[in-house]
Design goal:
Largest sheet: 4 strands, antiparallel
Helix content: 10-25%
Number of helices: 5
Shape: elongated
Strand order of the largest sheet: 1-3-6-5
Oligomer: single chain
Number of strands: 36
Distance between the termini: 156 Å
Structural class: alpha+beta
């Protein structure tokens, strides 16, 4: 395609004659152009544009020539090229005015160049003509093939669709092939030489329509359920398949045939499975198998596609009930019994019954949980163990347990409610304790007390009480009673004046009867105190005095209790003091002062040579020193040495006296330590002639030794003598 762009060309005097050289099949043409808007120059032709007939594929190409009318060919003029692209894209021969393109021209990048030309006289250096503006227009050639701008192309066509821009040549089924690649070719210059073409690929996807119904792959499903399963339990799944996809493959399962109404099917929307659930409890002994038929259909079906969904797919489900060992089953969910109160123990209350629902029919054992008032035997008969009192408890809530004898782990329980029916076994009585007072100066007919009654029995009708005085009090003219007929009565004086000194207290026997069947009557005693009232005749003063008397009595009781407590504590302290004193007398040596020559100091002693701190003579025996004896000392020698030790030395009398005192204390003191215990003697004495009695230093055996001398020391040593005597006999 060739296009020309005309731009204004400013001319001066003399004129520039531009020339155009066409390439390929184009030829140069001279065009007469006006100068200015409507000016036509008479001196010659004016060229104001160059045509480049094709895109330049070479780096140097002759475009055309600029030549002035004044140029006579003597090379005295110089041509210059100015404007955008001058020197970089286009150059001019300064002598001849020829214009060349030195770069490849691309119309798609730039199709128009505006330049200016100027002619200068070389000799004078001045411009021969003013600058002239001209245009170089790049014409197009077919050097670009057609291109698809938005490839790759993808189209979605519903299967079984009617014609479109891209037509389908035959009926297509997405379930057989869901994608098609189509190659599209585009050509330009149709029917002309040099035409170019471009191709692209179009991916055509067939979208799904709901032209397939869901179908069960299995014609029979076998499931099982335990008879102990709860309602709502899932017992299995069924599955249908649909060749459609997405929304068109969504299914809905349902029960088509189930006469027992025992099962139901729900749809899992995520997995498109049918879940068979238990709608009602099943019983193996009642029915051990079931047969149901299920169907499936699509959720979304267009009206024009209903022909593909006329008949839904179905399948048969066989369900087997599994037997389990069930607990006993009571015939009723609960029991209610009624029994009269005050009946003797062993009274029949009612009977419950439970059976083993399994085929083996195990015997049943009954029991009552947490109740001491009732009992039940193996037949289910409930009896009382003691008389019942409705006023204590009107209802008893029992829990009866039934246990299989063949399997004690199978247990079931039911509630049993026992209502105790009322009988009129309680007579009415005063509703409270009454404190009644009458003044000495009270007149006849004065009301001194209003009384009421209560009845612990339950009455079908409203309680009604009747009041009257006993026969003895009726004959007594001091007081009388009036029944108000509203379950209350008033006590009135029947005489004028009372004597506090003569009769300070009156006791009135009042009979109260109820309206029960049979009617019961009770005798209630009303105590009336005579008091000295004030001038107004008020009994409040009398009540106040009575209160003070009662409080005084309470104060005296409190004081007496405190005195008793003080006496008890005093006795305890006295006993503890006596015991402490006896302990001090038991060890009197602890109170003696043996610290005569004992000093406490911080200086280091001088050893055995230092005799300044104590009297060494007091520690030594004047006559007898202990010696170590070799060999065994016999018992006779020990007794002899013992007697000698009591007589030897200047302090033998003191030692003997000390030993006898201790022995006497041990024999007579009831608080002394137990038998054969160690007595502490804090008196060393003058030593012993017997020497050491240690068995470590004994050289001979003591089998022939006699311990009879221990019997001579008194009853406290008798046990010790027996122990040593028996030991010697056993050794012999």
């Amino acid at each position: 395609m060739n296009c020309c762009l005309l731009l204004p060309f400013m001319l001066g005097i003399p004129l520039l004659w531009p020339c155009l050289r066409a390439t390929e099949n184009s030829q140069a043409k001279e065009v007469e152009q006006p100068v200015g808007s409507h000016l036509r120059v008479k001196r010659g032709w004016v060229w104001n544009q160059f045509f480049v007939p094709e895109e330049m594929n070479t780096t140097s190409h002759h475009i055309g020539r600029l030549r002035s009318d004044l140029d006579i060919g003597n090379n005295s003029f110089q041509y210059k090229l100015l404007g955008a692209g001058a020197g970089s894209t286009f150059v001019i021969d300064e002598r001849t005015g020829d214009i060349y393109a030195i770069q490849k021209l691309d119309r798609e990048e730039r199709s128009l160049y505006t330049l200016r030309a100027q002619v200068i006289d070389i000799t004078t250096g001045r411009a021969v003509e003013p600058e002239s503006e001209f245009v170089i227009k790049v014409s197009d050639i077919n050097d670009n093939e057609p291109k698809f701008l938005d490839e790759p192309y993808e189209a979605s066509v519903p299967e079984m669709s009617p014609e479109g821009v891209i037509r389908i040549s035959s009926k297509m089924d997405r379930e057989l092939q869901d994608e098609y690649w189509v190659i599209i070719q585009a050509k330009d210059m149709i029917g002309q030489p040099g035409a170019l073409s471009g191709t692209t690929s179009v991916l055509i996807k067939l979208s799904d329509v709901n032209d397939n119904k869901p179908i069960f792959k299995e014609s029979l499903y076998r499931l099982s359920v335990s008879e102990s399963a709860a309602t709502g339990t899932s017992i299995g799944t069924i599955m249908a398949y649909d060749n459609d996809i997405g929304e068109n493959a969504e299914m809905e399962y349902s029960i088509e045939e189930d006469d027992s109404q025992t099962f139901d099917i729900i749809t899992n929307n995520e997995t498109q499975e049918g879940i068979v659930i238990l709608k009602k409890k099943v019983d193996f002994e009642h029915q051990n198998h079931y047969g149901i038929r299920a169907k499936v259909k699509n959720h979304h079906v267009d009206e024009q596609l209903m022909e593909y969904h006329t008949e839904a797919s179905t399948t048969f489900i066989r369900i087997q009930v599994e037997d389990v060992d069930e607990p006993p089953l009571f015939h009723l969910p609960y029991y209610i019994f009624e029994v009269l109160e005050e009946n003797p123990h062993g009274l029949f209350v009612g009977m419950v019954s439970a059976t083993d629902p399994d085929n083996r029919k195990s015997p049943i054992r009954y029991s009552v949980a947490r109740s001491k008032m009732f009992n039940i035997d193996d037949n289910g008969t409930i009896t009382t163990t003691s008389p019942l009192d409705r006023e204590i408890s009107a209802w008893y809530n029992l829990s009866i347990t039934a246990t299989e004898k063949y399997n004690i782990e199978q247990i079931s329980s039911i509630p049993v409610y026992v209502q105790v029916l009322n009988i009129n076994d309680h007579a009415p009585e005063f509703s409270q304790y009454y404190e009644t007072y009458v003044c000495e100066n009270a007149g006849s007919g004065q009301v001194i007390q209003t009384i009421s009654a209560v009845d612990r029995d339950e009455s079908i009708e409203e309680h009604h009480f009747y009041y009257k005085l006993s026969v003895e009090d009726t004959n007594n003219s001091s007081f009388t009673i009036i029944d108000n007929q509203d379950n209350t009565a008033v006590i009135l004086t029947n005489r004028t004046g009372f004597n506090l000194q003569g009769e300070p207290v009156f006791y009135i026997s009042i009979l109260i009867a109820d309206n029960g069947t049979p009617s019961l009557t009770s005798t209630n005693t009303l105590t009336v105190h005579v008091c000295d009232c004030d001038d107004t005749g008020s009994t409040q003063t009398c009540q106040y005095q009575e209160l003070m008397l009662s409080m005084g009595f309470k104060t005296e009781v409190i004081i007496a209790v405190l005195i008793c407590i003080m006496i008890i504590f005093g006795f305890i302290f006295l006993t503890l003091g006596l015991k402490q004193r006896r302990k001090q007398i038991l060890f009197p040596e602890k109170s003696e002062d043996f610290r005569e020559n004992i000093f406490q100091y911080d200086d280091e002693g001088g050893g055995e040579e230092d005799t300044e701190a104590f009297d060494i003579a007091e520690l030594r025996s004047g006559t007898v020193m202990r010696e170590r004896k070799a060999g065994k000392t016999t018992s006779a020698e020990i007794r002899s040495l013992y007697r000698q030790s009591l007589q030897v030395g200047p302090d033998s009398a003191i030692f003997r006296k000390f030993i006898l005192e201790k022995l006497e204390e041990a024999n007579t003191d009831p608080c002394a330590p137990p038998f054969d215990s160690l007595q502490t003697y804090a008196f060393e004495g003058t030593g012993s002639l017997a020497g050491s009695l240690s068995s470590l230093e004994s050289a001979v055996s003591d089998q022939d030794e006699s311990y009879d001398y221990l019997n001579e020391l008194g009853p406290r040593f008798k046990r010790l003598a027996c122990m040593f005597g028996s030991a010697v006999q056993s050794n012999n």
